Prior knowledge:
Blueprint: E1 6-10, H1 16-24, E2 29-34, E3 44-48, H2 54-64, E4 68-73, H3 83-104, E5 105-116, H4 121-131, E6 132-138, E7 149-157
Parallel strand pairs: 1-2, 1-4, 2-3, 4-5
Antiparallel strand pairs: 5-7, 6-7
Residues 11-17, 33-36, 50-52, 74-77, 93 line the site of S-adenosylmethionine (SAM).
Amino acid sequence: MKGVEIVLELCSAPGGWTQVLRELDGSLQIVAIDLDPMPPVQGVHFIQGSILDDEIIAKAENLAGTPFDLVLSDCSPKVSGQWDLDVVRQLELAERTYDIAHKVLGPKGKALAKVFQGQGFHEFLVETRKRFNSVKIIKPPASRKTSAEIYLLAIGPRKKAQSKKK
Ligand SMILES: C[S@@+](CC[C@H](N)C(=O)[O-])C[C@H]1O[C@@H](n2cnc3c(N)ncnc32)[C@H](O)[C@@H]1O
């Protein structure tokens, strides 16, 4: 992957994406985080914990010792069965993903995360656009036209012009 040497993978278990990353580029440095355990992947630093915990994120930054080039996130909350609640939790994880990305990425760093277009998505998109130089919505060809699932690619955290909303 051009320009990508070090990756932070959020919500990585059971490790499907991690394996793909490793196969794509054997020299990538990867730090992965998940609440659940994950089988070891060669050369991957895995941290078991919540991405909502600042200490876990600090641990990932310390392990890296340098800004990340890419943040990848595939977070899904444990499903409660209540659609509205699940959408709110999913959006919280997406917001947290871009907060983390804004903090840990270098100036040309990229963040790619799966996001659901539910309630609150528009406000979230507006805020994210303020904090990154470029934000693109990607709808994978395999995803059904009616599916609410999209990927959001944000490039270049704007470190000085931070939005007021946290
Ligand atoms: C769809 S799975 C990820 C699958 C993974 N990308 C793969 O390819 O194997 C979603 C993951 O989000 C994790 N997750 C949910 N909330 C989390 C949190 N607060 N912190 C860390 N991981 C979380 C879950 O434990 C679950 O493993």
